[in-house]
Amino acid sequence: LRTTLSDRFQRQVRKVLNDPDVAYHIKRLIVESLSEIVPGDDDWNLVRELTDVSPDLFERFLWRTRNDEWFFFLKDRWLPYARTHGNQPLIARFYEHLGTWLDGHPSDVLTLWLEALDEENDNPQRVRFSIMMALKKSRYWSLPEARRILIRLSEVCTGNEIRYLGKPLSRFVEETNSG
């Protein structure tokens, strides 16, 4: 239905998601299933509506996205929209989820994380922690963004969270033979 009658598909999905008589777990299954498709231009209105009307369902959807097409869709379309509409909690969740695409798009992900460290968000410690946990597994230390993100993290980390920077720092030194 989605490939042949996209408008009809979009209407039916919206109808189910907006129907107060449909159980939440059904809505959750639908949005999680959407994360498995390859997004197209037709999906923008639905994603925008999820963001604005059902942020909890959007978050469920976001955490299930994995394919490269969703990465670029979210980075290029959704993130600018969310920034202009001040949706800081969902933006923070997006930054936390970026580690999913680190292997496929390391430069883009590191650049977005640098932006995250400089933006106001609803839980900066949670965002920093997610970045540091993903960096522990990184193999992209030769990228210029890697050095910059480690420097920035060392500037903004406070208290106990600095201890989570140790592993990424040691991996950077090992891989680049510099410090």
Describe this structure in words.
With 179 residues, the chain is an all-alpha fold. The model has no long low-confidence stretch (mean pLDDT 92). It contains ten helices and no strands. The chain is elongated. Helix content is 67%, strand content 0%. α4 packs parallel to α6 (88-97), α6 (88-97) runs parallel beside α8 and α7 (106-118) packs parallel to α9 (144-156). The longest helix is centred in the middle third of the chain and has 17 residues, at 68-84.
What is the radius of gyration?
18 Å
Fraction of residues in β-strands: under 5%
Order of helices and strands: HHHHHHHHHH
Q: Flag low-confidence runs.
A: none
Biggest sheet overview: none
Shape: elongated
Q: Could you tell me the number of beta strands?
A: 0
Distance between the termini: 55 Å
Question: Brief description of this entry?
Answer:
The chain has 179 residues and is mainly α. The protein is 67% helix and 0% strand. The longest helix has 17 residues, at 68-84.
Write a concise keyword list for the protein shown above.
179 residues, mainly alpha, 10 helices, 67% helix, elongated
What layout of secondary structure does this protein have?
Blueprint: H1 6-18, H2 24-34, H3 44-53, H4 55-64, H5 68-84, H6 88-97, H7 106-118, H8 124-135, H9 144-156, H10 166-176
Helix pairs in contact: 2-4, 3-4, 3-5, 4-6, 6-8, 7-9
